[in-house]
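This is your field. Pick holes in the following sequence-structure pair:
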Amino acid sequence: MKDDDHARTLPFTELQIPHQRNYNSVSFPLVLSRNPTTLPFSVSLFTETITTHKYILHSLLLESGAVLFRGFDINTAKDFNDVVEAFGYDVLPYVGGAAPRTQIFGRVFTANESPPHQKIPFHHEMAQLPEFPSKLFFFCEVEPGSGGETPLVLSHIVYERMKQRYPEFVENLEQHGLIYTRVLGEEDDPSSPIGRSWKSTFSTDDKNLAEERAAKLGTKLEWLENGGVKTIMGPIPAIKYDKLRDRKIWFNGMVPAYTGWKDKQIDPDKAVTFGDGKPLPADIIYDCQRILEEECVAIPWQKGDILLIDNLAVLHARRSSSPPRRILASLCK
């Protein structure tokens, strides 16, 4: 069943807007809006409609990889929390992730709190960890002054282009995976997009407990004299198989680790290597970055937008912006 067939069974209207792409007659992302003739608006009616039709919405997400809900007059973190709850996905605690975040309401957190002028490279959320979100929600509480888009790209398209251009490199990735190395400070560093401290990362200030929690995430810790810690994760698979869609996907943090993990404590050349410890070729990494940009969709945020992303199917990023901009997030199992 095509997207428009699904949409006709919902009290929503499918929108075609600039910047969208179309793959095999499926819009990416799919954009749904309120149909005033069939859905008088209130937050409670919206959430009831989601709960009633969540299996159809899930099938739409499976087809497209991302669904943007626009024009539903969602205004607050509580409203957003209610919408997320209506889908029925289990919450995923943010343990082991790199971004500095603050809990706002219920299962709603700020998105990455690094300075707005900084770009965040394309990534799957928590791809370097054994347990990562299957679904991501983003909510535009405050529309950016300018810029600040959250570009999206389908990971199987990236895999196909990389496999075609660099078959030997991709074969090495599939065989060896990747090792990620980071240095976490003792306190959060809000100037860095990966500035979460080890205390925040592992939700404790007890080093023994931090080591236990790190071990559950497949992470080794090496404590440093300055109170920080080096984390070593991997080897971790860099290519995954998406069973639901029957295709291989580009699921790794190679580009963000190499191009975006540089801060006061981290050398990007050492941040990511092949799983056998051999260095990655910089030219291929930067070409992969170009492919991601060529294939991405970047729709400007509007106040009240809610974006649902399948974290297996889609990579996301952040473009620089001028204030104000406030995007909230929620992670789901």
